[in-house]
Structures are given as structure tokens and as C-alpha cells.
Amino acid sequence: MRSQSDERDDTGDGTSPLPDCPRCGEPVAFVTATGPVTASASPCGCSVPPGLGQRDD
Questions:
Q1: What pLDDT does residue 23 have?
Q2: Residue of 54, 48, 50 lying closest to 18 (CA atoms)
Q3: Digit-coded pLDDT (tens) for 1-57
Q4: Which superkingdom heads the taxonomic lineage of this protein's source (predicted)?
Q5: Cβ-based neighbours of 30, under 8 Å, separated by 6 or more
Q6: How far apart are CA 8 and CA 25, in angstroms?
């Protein structure tokens, strides 16, 4: 099991470098696209938009 300190970034400010799931608020490690407008967040399993976590550079 991961501790809260394992989920923090190197700055130690308590924020996660991972995006939060818009449905449950848990950090999202990766998103699996299941269709053109549907996707599943992992590890929580919630249905999310496929572009979740993409950066606008």
C-alpha cells in the first residue's frame, strides 16, 4: 500500500503530479480510451473524458 508521502511530488507540498479523477477525486495514473468519446480512469475505474491528463502545451 502506498502512503500519502509516496503520492506527493518532489516539492513536498502535498500535491500529486497526477491529474485528479473528475468523478471521485482520486489520482489517475492512466486513462484507457474505450471509444471516441469514452474512457476509463485507472486505478479508480471511473468513466472520464478521453483527454483527461493531456497537457495543453
A1: 93
A2: 54
A3: 444 444 444 445 666 688 899 999 999 999 999 888 899 999 999 999 887 766 666
A4: Archaea
A5: 41, 42, 53
A6: 15
Beta carbons of 1 and 11 less than 8 angstroms apart = no
Q: What is the CA radius of gyration of the chain?
A: 12
pTM above 0.85, yes or no: no
Those residues whose C-beta lies under 8 Å from the C-beta of residue 16, and which sit 6 or more positions away, are: 7, 8, 9, 27
**Is 50:38 a contact under the CB 8 Å cutoff?**
yes
Residue labelled with grid coordinates 500500500: 1
